[in-house]
């Protein structure tokens, strides 16, 4: 019984890590259209 619970926890941790990595590196967010550096003091520097 303990082995089954341990396997479930390990597989769920691996699945969460894979979801995080896919979201972080493979799914790109659309870039904003606002250009930075046009003396509009956008706060990115």
UniProtKB/TrEMBL annotation:
- The domain of life is Bacteria
Cite the entry's keywords alphabetically: Membrane, Transmembrane, Transmembrane helix
Q: Which residues cross the membrane?
A: 6-26
What is the name of this protein?
FeoB-associated Cys-rich membrane protein
